[in-house]
Design brief:
- The protein is α/β, with parallel strands linked by helices and about 260 residues long.
- The chain has one domain (about 70-255): Alpha-Beta Barrel (TIM Barrel).
- The chain contains ten helices and seven strands.
- The protein has helices at about 1-15, 25-30, 35-40, 90-100, 110-115, 120-125, 150-165, 185-190, 210-220, 240-255; strands at about 70, 80-85, 105-110, 130-135, 175, 195, 225-230.
- Helix 9 (about 210-220) runs parallel beside helix 10 (about 240-255).
- The relative contact order is 0.17.
- Mean pLDDT is about 85; it is low at about 1-40.
- It binds zinc ion.
- Zinc ion binds near residues 85, 135 and 139.
């Protein structure tokens, strides 16, 4: 094949002396009537990567201890259930079904961007008598470390979205994502008439341990007045859901379960 190609090339050479074998000139060069590319095309835009990123505001450090002013217990002997990071179309309805079956009420710490996507779920939460808690617009773990006007804007936006779904909704609580509280976020929440809701019992269901582990952790740690942290959003909550029936039955029997007020 190589020899044949060479032969074809040599034969062609006799005819195509100027062009050569394989072509020495480009089509553009062979067509002098075409305008130069620069005249036909708009100029290249200036490369954007050289534009400097705006400097990131420095985050204030997290305090070593939790700030004062956090709600950490129910104030009564009964315990409270809290569900964070929803509303979620896969899990929130199932959690609501469990709560209804057990005849207990809980507090839902909702994420504003999720409320925007699923307003009907928020309506169901309120309709079935549960409490609401603002859990920031987009679950910003560093929100408490940001400038105060940013904190305020985030909390206001989230509460506004909640009230867009349920116009007369009461939002008496704020919970900082990750429990990464600062004095500033507690202050802003207070100015917006929200108490800062922490927790007493964290079975770490977000890390997806088996349902039996979630149940055991709650049972072991719950005391009179405990606030129990669980999740109905933010990922696969099958284990939390599976734990609910036994967990709620245990808490009802041992302490009673009441909605936070
Ligand atoms: Zn959360």
């Amino acid at each position: 094949m190589r020899h044949r190609s060479l032969l074809t090339c040599l034969t062609g050479l006799a005819v195509l002396l100027a062009a050569g074998c394989g072509g020495s000139g480009t089509p553009e060069a062979a067509a002098p009537s075409s305008p130069p590319p620069s005249a036909a095309l708009p100029p290249e835009p200036a490369p954007s990567p050289t534009r400097a990123e705006p400097p990131k505001p420095k985050l204030r450090p997290l305090p070593k201890k939790l700030p004062t002013g956090l709600v950490r217990t129910t104030g009564t002997a009964k315990v409270a259930l809290t569900f964070d990071d929803g509303p979620d179309p896969a899990w929130t309805p199932k959690v609501l079904d469990r709560l209804k079956a057990a005849k207990v009420h809980a507090t839902f710490c909702v994420v504003g961007s999720q409320v925007r996507k699923h307003p009907a779920l928020l309506q169901r939460i309120v309709r079935e008598g549960h409490q609401l808690c603002n859990h920031s617009w987009n679950h910003d773990m560093d929100l408490g470390r940001r400038p105060v006007p940013e904190i305020r804007a985030d909390l206001v936006r989230t509460s506004r979205e909640i009230r867009r779904a349920v116009p007369d909704a009461k939002v008496p609580f704020y919970r900082q994502p990750g429990g990464r509280w600062t004095t500033e976020v507690v202050q802003v929440a207070k100015q917006l008439d929200m108490r800062s809701l922490h927790w007493t019992v964290d079975p770490q269901d977000w890390a997806k341990p088996p349902a039996a582990t979630i149940e055991k952790r709650v049972k072991r740690s719950a005391r009179p007045g405990s606030v129990v942290l669980l999740h109905d959003g933010g990922g696969d909550r099958a284990a939390t859901l599976a734990a609910c029936a036994n967990l709620i039955a245990d808490l009802k029997r041992d302490h009673g379960v009441a909605r936070l007020t």
